[in-house]
């Protein structure tokens, strides 16, 4: 570190302001407010896993149609949190049905705050933010609230994904970049086309050349895989890149587990370290990718757990058991959340005990999260009818 420019600010606001921000966020997410169900950030029982699952389910469901393909555009904004105008957010809050007094309080909260940065014993001069809602939760949840209806959007904070579900070669809505550009200008958002990527998923028998996508005159780079919210999605919907990344991270952490074992750390602490640093890596978004992995990929991942088991000297949960447990828990949370985009997919049969399976034509949809979750729920109900909730 040679100067203050080498540091990156982590927190710019005191605890009291963060508490007020949390309160104002809760106020804007009351049941009476019709927030976008496809915005998964800062909402109870929602995570990046829900975001990825929703996007992939939309893709694989559409690919069930003959001759269809999917274009996913991962939009990047230039300093998205710093370009939003607070008065435009207030207008959206009013459209959501919040009382006028609450909207004005939030508007006052977002503007005119004096903030400074302290590094060690050095404190910067205070600056007053009068034109931008810097670092506010409202920026991400409301800035993309009214995206163009011509497109399907999946959002987590400012990470916005445009889903182009194309049938019979009709790309008119997907390629109408003017709609997206105009919407961004109206909401004071700047598109960073150099970091915006396109991923095309197509399994058509007749391979036809797909024309490149242009936004504001710039060609969007088409990639074979993309790191989307911590998960590597490939154009062929295989999970080889994602599995390789998981193995690499987990094996690196096994080294530290061995170091702890050599230093005679207690077994309880070894297991705690394993669960925090290795199991958490192996199980990130496991509900999405596990059933679509090959047998070889599952064995490779299970091999990491077997090695950790030998190091710790005690039995550890198998990866398949972890997947089943988390898949059931995720499904039960979605069933309880009527505002979740995937809630309607869990439809009870007239018996009231089992859920209707999704009609599938390909293994892509069969091995997707929602179909797997329904299968697991029905199997659990069969084993223990009284456990159905």
Q: Classify the oligomer.
A: single chain
Question: What is the count of distinct domains?
Answer: 2
Shape verdict:
globular
List SSEs in N-to-C order: HHEHHEEEEHEEHEEEEEEHHHHHHH
Q: Averaging pLDDT over every residue, what do you get? A: 81
Could you name the ranges where pLDDT drops below 50 across 5 or more consecutive residues?
none
Widest beta sheet: strand line-up: 6-7-1-8-11
Tell me roughly what share of residues is in helical segments. Answer: 40-55%
Broad structural category: alpha+beta
Number of continuous helical runs? 13
The end-to-end span amounts to: 55 Å
Largest sheet: 5 strands, mixed
β-strand percent reads 5-15%
Write the layout of secondary structure elements.
Layout: H1 15-27, H2 48-62, E1 69-75, H3 86-95, H4 100-110, E2 113-115, E3 118-119, E4 122-123, E5 127-129, H5 137-143, E6 152-156, E7 159-166, H6 177-186, E8 197-202, E9 214-215, E10 218-219, E11 221-222, E12 225-228, E13 231-234, H7 240-262, H8 267-282, H9 286-289, H10 295-312, H11 319-336, H12 363-366, H13 369-383
Parallel strand pairs: 8-11
Antiparallel strand pairs: 1-7, 1-8, 2-5, 3-4, 6-7, 9-10, 12-13
């Amino acid at each position: 570190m040679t100067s203050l420019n080498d540091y990156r600010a982590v927190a710019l606001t005191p605890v009291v302001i963060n508490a007020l921000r949390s309160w104002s966020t809760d106020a804007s997410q009351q049941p009476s407010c019709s927030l976008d169900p496809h915005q998964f950030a800062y909402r109870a029982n929602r995570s990046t896993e829900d975001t990825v699952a929703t996007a992939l389910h939309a893709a694989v469901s559409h690919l069930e149609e003959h001759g269809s393909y999917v274009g996913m555009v991962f939009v990047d904004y230039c300093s998205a949190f710093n370009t939003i105008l607070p008065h435009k957010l207030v207008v959206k809050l009013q459209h959501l049905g919040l009382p006028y007094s609450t909207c004005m309080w939030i508007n006052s909260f977002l503007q005119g705050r004096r903030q400074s940065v302290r590094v060690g014993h050095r404190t910067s001069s205070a600056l007053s933010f009068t034109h931008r809602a810097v670092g506010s939760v409202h920026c991400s949840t409301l800035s993309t609230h009214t995206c163009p209806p011509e497109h399907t959007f999946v959002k987590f904070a400012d990470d916005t994904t445009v889903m182009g579900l194309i049938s019979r070669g009709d790309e008119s809505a997907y390629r109408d970049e003017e709609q997206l550009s105009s919407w961004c200008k109206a909401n004071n958002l700047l598109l960073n086309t150099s970091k915006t990527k396109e991923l095309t998923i197509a399994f058509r028998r007749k391979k036809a050349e797909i024309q490149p996508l242009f936004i504001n005159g710039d060609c969007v780079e088409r990639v074979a895989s993309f790191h989307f919210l911590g998960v590597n999605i490939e154009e062929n919907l295989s999970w080889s890149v994602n599995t390789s990344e998981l193995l690499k991270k987990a094996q690196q952490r096994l080294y530290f587990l061995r170091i702890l074992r050599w230093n005679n750390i207690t077994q309880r602490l070894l297991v705690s370290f394993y669960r925090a640093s290795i199991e958490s890596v192996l199980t990130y978004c496991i509900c999405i990718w596990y059933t679509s992995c090959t047998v070889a990929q599952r064995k490779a991942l299970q091999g990491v757990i077997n090695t950790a088991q030998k190091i710790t000297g005690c039995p550890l949960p198998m990866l398949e058991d972890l997947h089943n447990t988390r898949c059931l828990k995720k499904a039960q949370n979605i069933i309880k959340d009527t505002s979740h985009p995937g809630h309607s997919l869990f439809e009870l049969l007239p018996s009231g005990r089992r859920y209707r399976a999704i009609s599938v034509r390909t293994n892509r949809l069969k091995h997707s999260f929602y179909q797997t979750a329904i299968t697991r729920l029905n199997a659990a109900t069969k084993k223990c009818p009284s456990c159905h909730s």
